[in-house]
Amino acid sequence: MKKILQISLGIVTAVGGFLEIGSVVTAVQAGASFNYQLLWAVLLGTICLIFLVEMSGRLAAVSKHTIVEATRERFGFPFFFIVMIGMTLVAFLVLVAELGGIGLSLQILTGIGFPWWAIPVSFLVWLLMWKGTFGLIENGASLLGLVTLSFVVAAVRLHPDWGSAAHGLLPTFPGARKASYWFVAVSILGASISPSLMYFYSSGAIEDEWDESYIPINRLTATLGMSLGGFLSMAVLVVAALVFHPRGIDVQKFEQASLLMTTALPKWGFTLFALSMLFACFGAALEISLAIAYFFAQGFGWNWSEDLAPSRDARFCLTYTIIILLGAVPLLFGVDPVKVTVMSMALTSATLPLAIVPFIFLMNDPIYLGKHRNGWLSNSVVLIIILLSFILAVISIPLELIGG
Amino acid sequence: MHVVRDVLDKKLLDHEDESMGRIDGLVMQIGKSSQPRITHIAVGGATLWARVHPTLGRIARRMAGKWGPKRREKVRIPWSRVRTVGRDVTLDVEAKHAGAIDWEIWIARHIVERIPGGGHEEPDDGD
């Protein structure tokens, strides 16, 4: 039973790391501009993520080392340093976006502008990490994140044309607005395949003390958790396609997106959207701040665990304290969280190879994985993802300039 | 054993399995007639950053002397104290006395413990 409950690690990783402001913004844009045509990008992102997350968990369960630790150990500090710069920059932007997402949700609920929420929200995120345990964060965020299931309810109530939705699961070439189409597709992939999500998950496996006996549970957790995340993103895209696309509304602002569910659920739609975004972004803010602190602690060999008193892993706790404090600053000055989100997704794509290439080496290393090394299927998938990551890296920045 | 593959950058654990950083560098002795051999493990920012660029190493060293625990000499642990080399490297020293976690202790005492709910680092550290 205890092992089955580990599924919450998958849910928190998915709701916090997958379905967050980035995925919602891109899914809404995709649905509003291109109807169901970009559902394939969500599906592709989800499949890649299932494999990568499963591998992150397997490496941790077998070797008791996270991806970050193994990267430093296997590739040495100079390479690790390059990954560190890329990862920190991107993760910090994502943190700003998520803290901003919480602020925007509170803004539409209360009418008080998001810059006012920057300090209280950051303080609350920090307090939960300072006082809470990993289990509390994991289970609390998973439970609250289930509010996002309301996206599915909204999608079903609008009676989508399932046939043409299924058609969207296969990639098609756009008729017009090519640059914009590919930009949104790249953003969807950038929003889904985020390295910090894998770093978080593999650290979570260590926090939850997984060993080799958890390999089947890990497979189940990765598959169900990421499928849930992908499924919810698809629901958002479908609702946006039904509500915004026929009216020709091009969603650029969070306030516009907040009307996503009012057609399907006139009474509760607005509140449910705000609460879903609030909880999803809150989970994501916790996850990304932890991922950054884990990254530094593991890379430099410091003590780290959410379950230790802060004085027992002082450098780890100081790292997330500083990061969260800094994350509030741009919001105080009124920097638009949606713009930060769009930028962070393009940058995630641009830095993806740095995080993904080490995978193929680590997952085939007998020292770390012994007989649990990757088989031909996983290796083929990683190679395809590496190829994809290089394509994304090359085209993301030019596309942002043209299509964004 | 391949020194760079199997030793460098590995996590260091003290005799109670407390983590005490990573092997940031190795000190070798090269004699005219004898085989080169590893004499010490080096831990700390100055050694580590010098591997990225010598200038970064010098900056790290200068900062280490001025800030925090103000340690001027580099932390070096004799190779003879190595107990096992596996996925991690275990030593028969105590982390606190080896100097490798000076910063951890300094930050705990000067910053973290002063924030409510920070907890307390154990008092019996003897330094």
Verbal overview:
The complex is a heterodimer of chains A (404) and B (127). Chain A is mainly α and 404 residues long. Chain A has 18 helices and no strands. Chain A has helices spanning 2-5, 7-17, 21-34, 39-63, 67-110, 114-131, 134-145, 150-157, 162-167, 178-192, 195-207, 215-243, 254-257, 269-300, 314-332, 337-362, 366-369, 376-403. Chain A is globular. The N and C termini of chain A lie far apart (47 Å). The mean pLDDT of chain A is 91. The mean pLDDT of chain B is 87. In chain B, 31% of the residues lie in helices and 24% in strands. Chain B has 127 residues and is of the alpha+beta class. Chain B has helices at residues 3-7, 45-52, 54-66, 95-98, 102-110, and strands at residues 11-13, 19-22, 25-29, 37-43, 75-78, 82-85, 89-91. In chain B, 28% of the residues are buried. In chain B, the strands form 2 sheets. Chain B has a 4-stranded mixed β-sheet with strand order 2-1-7-6, with no helix packed on it. In chain B, a hairpin with a 5-residue loop joins strand 1 and strand 2. Chain A binds chain B through residues 63-65, 69, 72-73, 76-78, 80-81, 130-131, 300-303, 309-315, 317-318, 321, 367-368, and chain B through 4, 8-12, 18-22, 24, 48, 51-52, 87, 103-105, 107-108, 111-113, 115, 117-121.
Q: What structural keywords apply?
A:
heterodimer; A: 404 residues; mainly alpha; 18 helices; globular; B: 127 residues; alpha+beta; 5 helices; 7 strands
Structural class of chain A: mainly alpha
Approximately how much helix is present in the residues of chain A?
Answer: over 70%
Beta-strand percent range of chain B: 15-25%
* Oligomeric status: heterodimer
- How many angstroms separate the termini of chain A? 47 Å
Low-confidence stretches of chain A: none
Q: Which two chains touch over the largest interface?
A: A-B, 29 and 30 residues
Overall pLDDT of chain A:
91
Q: Uncertain spans of chain B, ≥5 residues at pLDDT below 50?
A: none
Query: Structural class from helices and strands of chain B?
Result: alpha+beta
Report, as a whole number of angstroms, the end-to-end distance of chain B: 36 Å
Fraction of helical residues of chain B: 25-40%
Order of helices and strands of chain A: HHHHHHHHHHHHHHHHHH
Count of DSSP E strands of chain B? Answer: 7
Q: Write down the overall mean pLDDT of chain B.
A: 87
